């Protein structure tokens, strides 16, 4: 697999992307509404292009992913479009985290799905090592080369061979906030960590808890850490920690955890306190921020662009009631962390290859983009496909970043450390949320679990 340092090249480019996001998101947040003008002027790529697919009448396929709720429902509409074009019948198979374990049980039972959406590059590598994954065929590779930057192509490769189509991306460096609460508190969108703490105090003084944290899902906590660490320690250290070339007992980790504790350990700054946060799953962490008008359970919630799916389940309108700002700079530069889900073929057939080809095309991504709460790394998805200005801004910023991004650190780790509920980094950061004063203990547990999962001592 392409190493993080190979595909994630620029701190300066990351700074430029953060600046672009900061300016553009401020504009869109102030303007409100959906705005047709920007959609019409968008330069997101070719429109009207279609991918050629074979006729697959009588073919039955299964696609597995961990997606639930609206996200699953929207993806099923993409599969319905594939069915319409090919005549195939596609069944969505709900998977559980960690998906590698889920797939292992299906394969052991002789019933693997044809295609699986894997949320970690580490999982793609494991699927290849276990000889489950099949290489992408020439048609899918052709779509990839036409529609994706080299970085997004490379992150789906193992030993230089393409296995993954990154159908879905995420900008994981965003904080969503309840606009009426900020207005009542006189709080302003922060650009630095110090300004974030100032805004939080203003919100707290107005009578609203500053932050909602979905601590029941450990991955939200790893995302918090990664943004603080990337901005504070810098990209070189980030890449080293991602590969466990430095230990989690490193002083840079201590500094990041100590910084996180300024929020996680501040009395009454987290909705429900630590115990409440650890019982709050991610969807609820979003909806409780935008339910209750200007008296919600919390004023802000950190997470990626996909939080819009959950905001859509409330009465809040993105760009008006629900606004967003880039994750503030903790060090000299604001962080830009990306994530994503890649389609990987497990049963090499004409139908499975055709589905991977379709998912690599702008046609598939455009279907889901129009439904909201989705971001594609496909550079030929037209900007006009995204349903509001905020989403268009985030999408354009992702495409303009090209190869200059940092991929989610925990997603690069072995799943035993970075992607398993109740274990590894997820559990260690949940324990730290419960006791943010124990920085040294958290570091020791993280290092012990990382060393075991990576199979080295750092």
Short description:
The protein is an alpha/beta fold.
What is the CATH superfamily of the largest domain? Periplasmic binding protein-like II
Evaluate the radius of gyration: 21 Å
What form results from the Cα inertia axes? globular
CATH topology of the largest domain: D-Maltodextrin-Binding Protein, domain 2
Strands, total number: 12
SS class? alpha/beta
Q: What CATH architecture of the largest domain would you give?
A: 3-Layer(aba) Sandwich
CATH class of the largest domain: Alpha Beta
User: What level of helicity do the residues show?
Assistant: 40-55%
Question: How many H/I helices?
Answer: 23
Pfam families: SBP_bac_8 (PF13416)
Keywords: Signal, Transport
Family: Belongs to the bacterial solute-binding protein 1 family.
Protein name: Carbohydrate ABC transporter substrate-binding protein
Task: Give an overview of the whole structure.
With 458 residues, the protein is of the alpha/beta class. It is built from 23 helices and 12 strands. It has helices at 4-7, 11-31, 37-41, 69-86, 99-108, 121-129, 138-147, 150-154, 179-185, 193-205, 218-233, 235-242, 251-264, 273-278, 282-287, 307-311, 350-359, 362-369, 389-400, 409-412, 415-418, 424-434, 439-454, and strands spanning 60-65, 89-94, 115-118, 157-158, 161-162, 164-171, 174-178, 211-212, 300-302, 322-326, 337-345, 406-407. Strands 1, 2, 3, 6, 11 and 12 form a 6-stranded mixed β-sheet that branches. Strands 8-9-7-10 form a 4-stranded mixed β-sheet. Strands 4-5 form a two-stranded antiparallel ribbon. Strand 1, helix 4 (69-86) and strand 2 (89-94) form a beta-alpha-beta unit. Helix 2 packs antiparallel against helix 19 (389-400). InterPro entries: Bact_solute-bd_prot1, SBP. Keywords: Signal, Transport. Residues 1-29 form the signal peptide. Belongs to the bacterial solute-binding protein 1 family.
């Amino acid at each position: 697999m392409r190493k993080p340092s190979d595909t994630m090249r620029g701190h300066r480019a990351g700074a430029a992307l953060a600046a672009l996001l900061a300016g553009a998101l401020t504009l869109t947040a102030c303007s409100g509404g959906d705005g047709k003008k920007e959609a019409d002027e968008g330069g997101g790529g070719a429109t009207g292009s279609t991918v050629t697919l074979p006729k697959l009448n009588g073919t039955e396929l299964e696609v597995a992913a961990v997606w639930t709720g609206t996200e699953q429902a929207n993806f099923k509409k993409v599969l319905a479009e594939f069915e319409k074009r090919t005549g195939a019948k596609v069944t969505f198979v709900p998977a559980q985290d960690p998906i590698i374990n889920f797939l292992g049980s299906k394969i052991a039972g002789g019933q693997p799905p044809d295609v699986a959406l894997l949320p970690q590059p580490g999982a793609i590598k494991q699927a290849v090592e276990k000889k489950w994954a099949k290489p992408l065929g020439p048609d899918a590779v052709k779509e990839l080369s036409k529609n994706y930057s080299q970085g997004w192509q490379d992150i789906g490769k193992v030993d230089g061979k393409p296995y993954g189509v990154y159908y879905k991306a995420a900008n994981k460096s965003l904080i969503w906030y309840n606009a009426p609460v900020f207005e009542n508190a006189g709080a302003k969108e922060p650009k630095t960590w110090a300004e974030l703490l100032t805004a939080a105090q203003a919100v707290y003084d107005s009578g609203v808890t500053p932050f909602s944290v979905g601590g029941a899902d450990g991955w939200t906590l790893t995302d918090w850490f990664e943004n603080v660490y990337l901005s504070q320690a810098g990209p070189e250290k980030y890449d080293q920690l991602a590969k466990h070339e430095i230990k989690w007992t490193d002083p840079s980790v201590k500094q990041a955890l100590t910084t996180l504790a300024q929020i996680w350990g501040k009395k009454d700054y987290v909705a429900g306190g630590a115990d409440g946060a650890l019982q709050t799953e991610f969807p609820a962490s979003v909806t409780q921020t935008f339910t209750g008008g200007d008296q919600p359970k919390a004023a802000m919630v950190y997470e990626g662009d996909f939080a819009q799916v959950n905001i859509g389940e409330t009465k809040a309108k993105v760009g008006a009631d629900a606004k967003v700002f880039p994750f503030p700079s903790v060090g000299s530069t604001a962080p830009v962390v990306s994530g994503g889900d890649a389609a990987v073929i497990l049963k090499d057939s004409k139908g499975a290859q055709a589905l991977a080809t379709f998912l690599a095309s702008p046609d598939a991504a455009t279907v889901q983009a129009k439904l909201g709460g989705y971001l594609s790394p496909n550079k030929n998805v037209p900007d006009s496909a995204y349903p509001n200005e905020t989403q268009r801004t985030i999408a354009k910023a992702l495409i303009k970043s090209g190869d200059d991004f940092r991929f989610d650190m925990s997603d690069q780790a072995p799943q035993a450390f970075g992607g398993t509920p109740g274990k590894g980094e997820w559990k260690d950061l949940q324990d730290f949320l419960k006791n943010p004063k124990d920085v040294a203990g958290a570091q020791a547990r993280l290092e012990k679990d990382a060393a075991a999962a990576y199979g080295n001592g750092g």
